[in-house]
Amino acid sequence: MTSSVPPARRLGRVLLTNDDGINAPGLALLAELVAGVAEEVWVVAPEKDQSGMSRAVTLTTPLRVEERGERRYALTGTPSDCAIFGLRHLLKDNPPDIVLSGINRGANVGDEVPYSGTVAAALTARLLGVPAIAFSQSFARGGQVRWDTARAVFARSLDYALDLRVAANAVLNVNFPDVDAADVGDVVLTRQSRGTLDRIDVEPRADMRGGTYYWMAFRRHMPILGPDTDAGALKHGLVSVTPLGFDMTAPEGIA
């Protein structure tokens, strides 16, 4: 069966990573899509799910790596660890042209961006001097992830991102909307939104022995936002591309 997805431009050496782990379907899809447009693809991903790890790095325990195929490695670390290991060890002498992180299971927009290991891996790569893009597929809680949508719009989203003149201190955060592939609109440049996270609750539970354990629960909502924001673009069925940087200064932070 011939794919109807248009090819993206050719790439050279590419390093892939994520935060959902080496066996995540989003990473498998990303590897498949990039293999068709890159000369050489390397994968360094966490051996298990590392969602929500932000830019954490492992400093107090040693890291171990397992080869899972040709140019494919599982690391006992965080997404940022994976970016560092790939760039400063595996590919130290032959660095990649770009690092692609994802495709994350769930959007990385608004107030939740700082928690994202997917975005963090891209930022870490940029800190080490390599351009990077993070990719995420939005989906509704309890619903199915529309990987077919990500497959259909990846090439034009990548081309759009590569056409942008991104500053040396920035990465791109790409989010695909939770709509059928045929209903996806344009790829648009956006800004990070605010107000998408109401609160974070701590939920106590009891195990079978009467002991107490806890889950962290994010309470989200979607305010009315314009298509110029990341969350607003997704609500309008658009692909959101947001430049993100390292400077966390709040110019209006002092009243």
UniProtKB/TrEMBL annotation:
Subcellular localization: Cytoplasm
Needed cofactors: a divalent metal cation
Protein's UniProt keywords contain Cytoplasm: yes
Keywords assigned: Cytoplasm, Hydrolase, Metal-binding, Nucleotide-binding
Annotated catalysed reactions: a ribonucleoside 5'-phosphate + H2O = a ribonucleoside + phosphate
Keyword Nucleotide-binding: yes
The enzyme's E.C. designation: 3.1.3.5
Family matches, as Gene3D superfamilies: Survival protein SurE-like phosphatase/nucleotidase
Domain Survival protein SurE-like phosphatase/nucleotidase as annotated: residue spans: 14-195
Record text on cofactor binding: Binds 1 divalent metal cation per subunit.
Residues that bind a divalent metal cation: 19-20, 51, 104
Entry's Gene Ontology molecular function annotations: 3'-nucleotidase activity; 5'-nucleotidase activity; exopolyphosphatase activity; metal ion binding; nucleotide binding
One Gene Ontology term, aspect cellular component: cytoplasm
InterPro entries in alphabetical order: SurE, SurE-like_Pase/nucleotidase, SurE-like_sf
Domain of life: Bacteria
Role this protein plays: Nucleotidase that shows phosphatase activity on nucleoside 5'-monophosphates.
NCBIfam families named among the record's database cross-references: PRK00346.1-4 (NF001490), surE (TIGR00087)
Family as reported in the entry's similarity comment: Belongs to the SurE nucleotidase family.
Protein name: 5'-nucleotidase SurE
Gene name, Swiss-Prot/TrEMBL: surE
